[in-house]
Model the fold of this input.
Amino acid sequence: MGALLPNLETVMQPDMQRYPVIPSKIDRRAGTYQANYEANSASLDKLANVLAEARAGGGEKYITRHRQAGKLLPRKRIELVLDRDSHFLELCSLAGHGISGHKPGASIVGGIGIVSGVECLISASEATVKGGAVNQYGMIKSGRLAQIAEQNRLPAISMIESAGADLPNQSKIFVPGGRGFRELTRRSEMRIPTICLVFGSSTAGGAYLPGMSDYVVMVRNRAQVYLAGPPLVKMATGEDSDHEELGGADMHSRVSGVSDYLAEDERDAIRLGREIVAHLNWRKAADPVHRPVQPPLYDPDELLGIASADIKVPFDSRDVIARIADGSRFSEFKPLYGTTLVCGWAHIHGYPIGILANNGILFSESSNKGAQFIQLCNQQDIPLLFLQNITGFMVGKKYEQEGIIKNGAKLINAVSNSTVPAITIMTGASYGAGNYGMCGRAYEPRFLFTWPNHRIAVMGSKQLGGVLEIIQRQAAAKKGIEVDEQRIAMGKAMLEAQIDKESDPFFASARVWDDGIIDPRDTRSVIAICLSATYNAPVAGTTSWGVFRH
Done:
């Protein structure tokens, strides 16, 4: 007999060793590296301080009062519902930061974690801030968390203890609040369950949260769920009632049926929540071919020295890929064409990924290359990772005549119509239409995070100030009047200061333009958690595109 045939599964498995290793020769002693490292470290210190403020809730006075009432803090509730030693990726943790009337986090804690072996979207009211009342940015954040649950088909666990709407600001939350209830019931129709654990008050509009959830657990002698409290009922109907008979957990568990489970205390409610998740019989809708996980060959700590603190200074995106990809291996696509956009395939924690990374401004060639690469990834159902550091598309007479508009439109078309999951990491600049072509927030990547050196705007402050000056000088010339140099200088300075403030990553994250500012060294882990979450939903590319103008 001839030699035995080899194991066909082994033969047919693509060999990661055939992906070439990215050569990276970063000099830690270089002045630019050290300056970047120092500046990025300082930004991370600022981030740590703001996150500490978010974790402080309403402050020591209200935290002490909360604990004295025998209640667990929201982050403790989340910790207890999670599987032991599993991860929790907090999302939108800076929502509301620096905005008048808001605290960092916007009175809600939310993120992705593992409960009874199932990836879930978990949120908890921050009851130490105005009793957990929902404010404008809390509503925006809640909407984003709900969108993540829907897009990635994640069961949701809502831990409720809220005074309802922040009534003095009702005009900013009333309409989007109604949409939130609508989306909750739509997720139920899509077979994405919501489990509501009620630890305290859930009044008025807040009563619809448990009312519209798929599973409801209420804590005895703690949960109070009603459309109107005793004073309002008295005023409206003349009826006398107390909190328990009107909306207590025992009543809702025995009489109204709003509650499905009556918990003896908070820890029992959390136990019941975990039990509910365990019997969901949850299965991911997609199952990628995993590769053995290999750590990068280069130290992720070096990302702090690689990422330019001054976004006008370029850096090679391959050095970033080399510190997040398995084995630092990367199969580059069209390496000699459209060189300002690096495209290729890699694995991150064993998950296949198609990477598009900026290495300069977008020209026609790089735009065409990116559009083709996105089509190829869709053809093979491979998720996309955008490493965004872009000042925009190239401008000028030569490039306009060569068709930069139509070629840039091809890239934006491909990004818009791609159906595989996309994750965007903003590693530097994000200006103008470059933000669109590299899958900015408006193009609905499944997840979008930024590094602390990130800047986002229509254009840089100096460029915008210069444009304003040119327009004002041209207007003066047309009118035949003398230019007011002092007025122009003052206007430029004010505009540049405004744009610098509004392009700051903390300004953007406060307004939920992203899902959070992350430590560059955590990028690989964050991407892996996000990739894992996306596979709860079907992962299927498309071959259907809009019209590509030629």
